[in-house]
Amino acid sequence: DILSNLSDDGSRAILLSIGFVFYGTTYTTVFLNNNGDLSFNNGFSEYSPDPFPISTPLIAPFWTDLYTGYFGSLWYRVTTDSDVIQRIRKEVASAFPELTTFSATEVVIATWDHVGYCCSPSSPTVTFQCILATDGINSFV
What is the pTM of this model? Predict the structure, then answer.
């Protein structure tokens, strides 16, 4: 896994070798953002509690004003590991029985580990993860 040393409102581009299809558009870069989201087209580094839809394509597993400056880490990896691929195949087949032949060819795993809320070193921490899986045609979060 790669430690992403993002500061408050930071963003990091992750290049994908297989396009990730999101609402009919194929993206070859996903941006890992400090504030609990992943975006496409550009980084979405600021926390802004605007209602959806917004102009930036966004996956927001836990969108809030997070801060890694006091504690916590933001990790990611892009993998084609066969054990990970097999587990995702089983999860997708369980949730979508009509897609039993889906087999991801690339997976992005992002983990926000014990991160706190902005501007409060005594705030409680949260840990959460988002997994993107694609075969270049079908994509799952």
Answer: 0.91
